[in-house]
Amino acid sequence: RVLGAEVVRVPAGLTIEIIGDVDARAKADGALHLNQFENDANFKVHLKYTAKELDEQLMSMGLKPSCIIGALGTSGHMGAISMYFKSKYGDDVRIIGVEPAPNEVIPGIRRVETGMKWFHWVKFDEIVDVKRDEAIEGVIKIARNEGLLIGLSAGAVVHAFTRIAERPGVYVLVFPDSGYKYVEQFEEYFTTKTPS
């Protein structure tokens, strides 16, 4: 609203459930809907830039990743990261996807069975289920220890890391969002729980 947009709240639980409505509204208004769920530019840009940048940063420190962990929303960024790093290192690098646990909602990510275009193009070594409260606890952990306000999907990645990081190695955690748009979720959490 601050930028002059009309905000329309819809009853759908997942963005993917209303893509048809968004497409119809865009056509009616003469607008362009880029559709990150189906637009191959999503995957290609992450392959060309995101994955390459991660690799360059690791190489600049003389590091080779043991494991890369990221949340699954469209599967664009993690699919591209998997393709890039599996092509370079094969199974020497583990690729871990993070999804909401059954019957849980974590904004920005969804379960694999809801349909992800690029997920099946590549190899994931493991999928970790995370509950909403666990994702929020991951956000709190990073905020208090690192001074960064990450988003809920990033918090889910943190929680997944705490579960799987048993062996020493170079772990890369992908944080695709910030926490600023989740204020209502944090408020709800803090009114019902006392974080540790």
Automatic annotation (TrEMBL):
Gene3D superfamilies: 3.40.50.1100. Residues 1-167 form the Tryptophan synthase beta chain-like PALP domain. InterPro entries: Cys_Synth/Cystath_Beta-Synth, TrpB-like_PALP, TrpB-like_PALP_sf. Coiled coil: none annotated. PANTHER family: CYSTATHIONINE BETA-SYNTHASE. This is PLP-dependent cysteine synthase family protein.
